[in-house]
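Milestone 3.1: sequence recovery, worked example.
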């Protein structure tokens, strides 16, 4: 049987050294349940180094993302403070393997959540909505993976930028959303590409994360998942994400 602590160390070191590694298949076969355990163990290594958990991210919530990566199941991963970059801030590309950016919507949770929350009750557990840039950086060679691989690898989580928080009454359905590099639009779409309604992603997050046994804590962030495909980044790129009705957010690659 695969030693899950060993797999967690394998992926954590790949991230820390910014060096890609072969997929788990073959050397470290894991079931989906074990993959979530590996994710938990690898995040625990980060927490043991002093990082703190700031929230969760949903993945493969849009057809655009499922098609781009060839994985068709919803996944979730964890976000730590070390991944957070301020709006207009910089990311050092040498600390990443083959980073990609994608446009997202973020929710800020206003109370501890231990069980699934119904769709109509979600605005009452949120006190902020914002556009976000997620930087994903698979630790696997050529950014290729199976469902189990990507879950074990904390769903490729690498960095995030969150814009100005707006009230939970702010509209997030049916909005134009775009991802630009150096002021040129690379992908544009609609926020409803996220499960037909981005609130659905938060609904699934409350179900899946609490079913696993985690409590989503007051003040934590949930990323809804990308509305468009992700784009590879290069040094000196300026990434911007625009969601109608929100201020544009940017990230500089150096
Ligand atoms: C996995 C992460 C997917 C999203 O927004 O769908 C994700 C990957 O594509 O590497 O973050
Ligand atoms: Mg994402």
């Amino acid at each position: 049987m695969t030693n899950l602590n060993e797999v967690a160390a394998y992926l954590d070191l790949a991230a820390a050294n910014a060096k890609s590694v072969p997929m788990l298949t073959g050397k470290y076969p894991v079931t989906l349940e074990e993959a979530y355990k590996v994710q938990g163990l690898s995040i625990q290594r980060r927490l043991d180094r002093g990082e703190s958990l700031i929230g969760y991210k949903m993945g493969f919530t849009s057809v655009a993302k499922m098609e781009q990566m060839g994985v068709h199941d919803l996944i979730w991963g964890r976000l730590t403070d070390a991944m957070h970059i301020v709006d207009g801030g910089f990311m050092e590309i040498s600390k990443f393997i083959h980073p990609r950016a994608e446009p997202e919507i973020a929710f800020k949770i206003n109370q501890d959540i231990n069980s699934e929350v119904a769709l109509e009750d979600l605005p009452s557990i949120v006190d902020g909505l914002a556009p976000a840039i997620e930087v994903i950086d698979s630790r696997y060679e050529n950014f290729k993976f199976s469902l189990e691989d990507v879950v074990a690898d904390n769903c490729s989580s690498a960095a995030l930028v969150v814009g100005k928080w707006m009230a939970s009454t702010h509209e997030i359905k049916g909005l134009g959303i775009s991802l630009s590099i150096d002021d040129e639009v690379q992908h544009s779409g609609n926020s409803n590409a996220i499960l037909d309604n981005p609130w659905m992603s938060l609904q699934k997050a409350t179900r899946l994360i609490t079913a696993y046994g985690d409590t989503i804590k007051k003040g934590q962030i949930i990323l809804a998942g990308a509305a468009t495909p992700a784009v590879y980044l290069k040094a000196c790129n300026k990434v911007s994400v625009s969601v109608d009705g929100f201020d544009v957010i940017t990230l500089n690659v150096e």
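The pocket of 2-oxoadipic acid (ligand 1) is lined by residues 57, 59-61, 65, 69, 102, 134, 136, 138, 150, 155-156, 225-226 (CB under 6 Å). Residues 171 and 222 are 17 Å apart (CA to CA).
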